């Protein structure tokens, strides 16, 4: 059914339960915290444009979708309850095949994106390249950010930043002993001191030559955001409003968290938006930056360039032990399946179960918002994959007209 499920009033937001720091939440306060980042953190508004892209109902409803996990047949209500799903939107050719909410959310709720924001940041690189604000992806990053001269990032190309192959040392684990760079990023963020994030990045050592090793780094995404700001001379949220929010036809303003009052956007995780608007972002990317009003905002071919591996270290099965995925330009590339169903598919993934899936072959976009009890949950991830595969298969056969 295309119509959204009603909000459960018992789960409605209680601002008193919002954690002051999104990096330290509990299962009990996750939902109000993820819903209300504009109340507790410095932010800049991503302004919507004048026209809203309609998302009409698709002829085939997925209201009764079921899928199999470990030889057990699972229904949507059970899946959403167990996986603490706050929103699930499935689009086929820009039409709603399914829209459902949980965890106290409704159509007007905004939800924190976590690392799915990285894919928005990388898309803004494509927009800046299309505009000519960035000359080439093979430009060195210090050409745009002179502050990086003398740091381990000097000489690193924008392309290798997008691949997360800079060679600069970074440990993503948020360990409590304070040694990981991700932990130090959290401390810099909580300090709300202007420039604290770039200060941290400029002090990092080199671990490898650039282009040789994939190493997932939220710091790298923050650096890319700062680079886009420097190249365009615009705050990231304002540039996003012009190049993504308006052209995609978003229905509501979004928010982008800042490192400090009036400071840089936290480009690795800081966007909050409605579920439908995350779906519209996926649709803009699926359509290769051709906005619904006919305006082009990305270079032709950007979707396939950004969504697929283009180097040995980011190739399928090369990223980390046990993972068949590949990596594009801040998008996780989905391994092909027999029959070509997933050929060219890619996804934005965020902690606690945030997800934007783009399948150009099948013209499917899926936006998923969740409040998993921990940042990573392998069982929930497996179930998400099963749900997505079932949805894609169910939408392959168009109903008779």
What's the helical proportion of residues?
A: 25-40%
Secondary-structure content class: alpha+beta
The total count of helices amounts to: 12
Mean pLDDT: 92
Cα(first) to Cα(last) distance is: 18 Å
Shape summary: globular
Q: Biggest sheet, strands in spatial order?
A: 5-4-13-12-11-10-9
What's the total count of β strands? 13
**Low-pLDDT segments, ≥5 res:** 5-13
Name the beta content range: 5-15%
The rounded Rg comes to 20 Å
> Could you describe the largest sheet, including whether it forms a barrel?
7 strands, antiparallel
Helix-strand string: HHEEEHEEEHHHHHHEEHHEEEEEH
Pick out its properties.
401 residues; alpha+beta; seven-stranded antiparallel β-sheet; 12 helices; 15% strand; globular
Short description:
The chain is an alpha+beta fold. Helices cover 29% and strands 15% of the residues.
Description of the structure:
- By secondary structure, the chain is an alpha+beta fold.
- 29% of the residues lie in helices and 15% in strands.
- It has twelve helices and 13 strands.
- It has helices at residues 30-35, 37-40, 76-82, 116-131, 158-163, 181-191, 196-202, 218-232, 236-245, 275-286, 302-306, 378-394; strands at 43-46, 66-69, 72-75, 85-92, 95-101, 110-112, 254-257, 271-274, 326-327, 332-333, 346-350, 354-359, 364-370.
- The strands form three sheets. A seven-stranded antiparallel β-sheet has the order 5-4-13-12-11-10-9, sandwiched between helices.
- Helix 4 (116-131) runs parallel beside helix 8 (218-232) and helix 4 packs across helix 9.
- The chain starts with 29 loop residues before the first helix and ends in a 7-residue tail after the last helix.
């Amino acid at each position: 059914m295309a119509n959204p499920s009603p909000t459960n009033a018992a789960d409605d937001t209680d601002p008193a339960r919002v954690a002051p720091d999104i990096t330290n939440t509990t299962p009990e306060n996750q939902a109000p915290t993820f819903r209300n980042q504009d109340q507790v953190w410095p932010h800049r508004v991503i302004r919507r444009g004048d026209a809203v892209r309609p998302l009409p109902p698709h002829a085939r409803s997925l209201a009764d979708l079921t899928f199999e996990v470990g030889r057990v047949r699972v229904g949507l209500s059970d899946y959403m309850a167990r996986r603490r799903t706050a929103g699930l939107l499935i689009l086929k050719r820009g039409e709603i095949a399914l829209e459902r909410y949980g965890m106290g959310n409704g159509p007007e709720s905004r939800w924190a994106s976590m690392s799915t924001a990285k894919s928005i940041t990388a898309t803004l690189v494509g927009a800046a390249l299309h505009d000519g604000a960035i000359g080439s992806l093979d430009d060195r990053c210090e050409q745009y950010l002179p502050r990086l001269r003398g740091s381990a990032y000097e000489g690193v190309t924008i392309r290798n930043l997008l691949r997360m192959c800079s060679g600069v040392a970074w440990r993503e684990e948020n360990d409590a002993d304070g040694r990981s760079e991700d932990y130090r990023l959290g401390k810099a963020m909580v300090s709300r001191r202007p420039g604290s994030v770039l200060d941290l990045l400029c002090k990092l050592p080199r671990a490898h030559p650039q282009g040789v090793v994939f190493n997932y780094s939220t710091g790298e995404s923050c650096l890319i955001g700062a680079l886009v700001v420097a190249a365009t001379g615009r705050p990231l949220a304002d540039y996003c409003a012009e190049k993504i929010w308006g052209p995609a036809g978003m229905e509501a303003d979004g928010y982008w968290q800042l490192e400090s009052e009036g400071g840089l956007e936290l480009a690795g995780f800081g966007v909050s938006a409605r579920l439908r608007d995350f779906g519209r972002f996926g649709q803009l990317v699926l359509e290769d930056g051709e906005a619904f009003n006919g305006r082009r905002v990305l270079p032709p071919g950007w979707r396939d360039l950004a969504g697929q591996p283009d180097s040995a270290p980011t190739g399928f099965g090369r990223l980390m032990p046990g993972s068949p995925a590949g990596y594009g330009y801040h998008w996780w590339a989905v391994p092909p399946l027999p029959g070509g169903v997933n050929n060219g598919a890619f996804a934005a993934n965020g902690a606690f179960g945030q997800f934007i899936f783009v399948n150009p072959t099948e013209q499917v976009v899926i936006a998923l918002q969740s409040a998993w009890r921990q940042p990573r949950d392998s069982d929930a991830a497996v179930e998400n994959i099963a749900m997505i595969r079932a949805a894609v298969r169910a939408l392959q056969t168009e109903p008779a007209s």
